[in-house]
Prior knowledge:
- The structure holds two protein chains of two kinds.
- By secondary structure, chain A is mainly alpha-helical.
- Chain A is 63% helix and 1% strand.
- Chain B is α+β, with helices and mostly antiparallel strands.
- The longest helix of chain B is centred in the first third of the chain and has 32 residues, at 2-33.
- In chain B, strand 4 (109-115) and strand 5 (118-123) form a beta hairpin.
- The N and C termini of chain B lie far apart (94 Å).
- Chain B has five helices and seven strands; from the N terminus they run H-E-E-H-E-E-E-H-E-H-E-H.
- Chain B folds into two domains: 2-37; 43-189, no CATH class.
- Chain B is elongated and about 95 Å long.
- At the A-B interface, helix 4, strand 1, helix 5, helix 11 and helix 14 of A face helix 1, strand 1, strand 5 and helix 5 of B.
Amino acid sequence: MKKALPYIIFVLLLCWHAVLYAQDRFPRPEFESGYVYPTNQMPTQRAPVWEYFDVAVLISALIVSTWLALKKRSRQGLIWMSVFSLAYFGFYRQGCICSVGSVQNVALALFNDGYTIPLSALLFFIIPLLFALAYGRVFCAGVCPLGAIQELTGFMPVKLPKTVEIILASVPFIYLTLAVLFASTNSQFIICRYDPFVGIFRLDATYTMIIFGVLLLLAGIFVNRPYCRYLCPYGVLLNVFSRFAGKHLTITPAECTNCRLCEEACPYDAIIPSDTDQNREEPEKSRKRFILYFLLIPLFAITGAYILYYLAPALSGVNGDVRLAREIRMEKETEIESVSKAMVAFKESGKTEIELFAEEEIIISRFKKASPWAGAFLGISFGIGMISLTIRSKRSEYKPHQGRCFSCGRCFKYCPIKVQTQNEA
Amino acid sequence: MTEGTNKYQSRRDFVRRAGKLIVAVPLVILPVALTKKTSAAGYVWQIDPFKCTQCGQCKTNCVLTPSASKCVHAFRMCGYCDLCGGYLRQGVKTISTGAENQLCPTGAITRKFVEEPYFEYTFNEDLCDGCAKCVKGCADFGNGSLYMQIRHDRCVNCNECSIARTCPSNAVIRVPADVSYMPKDAGVVKKGTNE
């Protein structure tokens, strides 16, 4: 060993040299004319301080939105807030960073050692949730640029059949689960990749995403806020947090008189009617059903976990390295040379197939470890959703559904009580 | 009747309070769990020139048009050759500045005589569209002094860089915001000062 040491050091030195001057084919000139090397301009990015300015804008926008929705009860004010957020977070900041995508940064940071989350991203994730826990989804009302662009284009609300609404409303849960799964395995940020409106903010995106965004906006004219209701993964979290909000927007400023004028006001199906005059089911019967569904939750969770565990190898295909490894295996099987850019780059990189296959194994095993949890989450959410469909608690007033309500304030003008108080004043 | 309402009311309150606690706890734990994994300065995207395979995807896969990634010249690595693999097309008949001889499709590279037999190659960044043809040429026949870098005056710093998503050699990586560029001649410069 001692004898070999100098040689090892020599080889290491050679390697060092090879790294530095891998392509140093031609000797660098020694100028005699006093030539001075030009310097490259390396323009710096926006100073990090501005990230915290964004956070400050976020907090102020949330405070103003809360005030407008809960205290001032001004729909017009919320529309102006939407315009501001669309202009600032959308068109000026070009949609990055946004709270919706920050879910993935958090997931990536939680489960990967190599990644440290920028503080601003963490704050963008937490602050709207805190507001939701305190005052409901005021973030959706006038701060989220994605919500704002849809709120401003929703002119002719059309209600969907209840069944369709329920089925479509379950999509965000799946989207959130997959997004967290893919981010936590360091594979892809699908929320950012399939963000339909960021292309409109930047006036530049892939052709398909522009089409998707425009179609969604066109659909949103009739089925208002389609992204928020049927896709937004952050909305799932806001929905859950908002259900336990301490204070929430109310339809009426005083006491509800059950005049039923607001019944059709909400395009998001988020007004729960009072049920004083409805025949109620026997408590015994509904209690039995509640217990049955409650006991079924573990079953749903296990089923979900099993399904996603079974799908894990297929899902791992979103990871580029796994795809490359599969391509190499396919190339060997079919004996047709692959000319994809990834393949060419791999062959040039000097990485061995064994290394790549080992990496692939690790990624797939991570997917297998994570996916049962994701499946269990989906199963439990499904179970709780089933329960909430069967529960009808006794209400003597018209109230917004705290989970579904975007605090957009469309219902304010339908309530006659406000007009009376104004007249009195 | 009033008793019944009270019962429902108190049960509802209980569920609400319990739920509030259940969702609030993770929200408090999260920043605590991530304290060591949080950076105040944040990250930017940059191309590692030693991993780059000059495939040219930077030009088309950036969310911006033209791309935020452009060619940079590490002058200290350049051989200042007359016959330049990054400037001239392969198999040119004459070594001249004629447009038909130039490799760069936008004519962003200018060539200037320094002293016998050396020529300096400089870039007009406004013209460069990041196609990486010259970078490929310089890597294949040259010192590899041309390399791609993401220009931070243009980059909008997407949460996930769309070039990184498709980069076949995983050369586009997150770097701490105070680093922001990965000059290819960093080692050469350092060596030069040591000597």
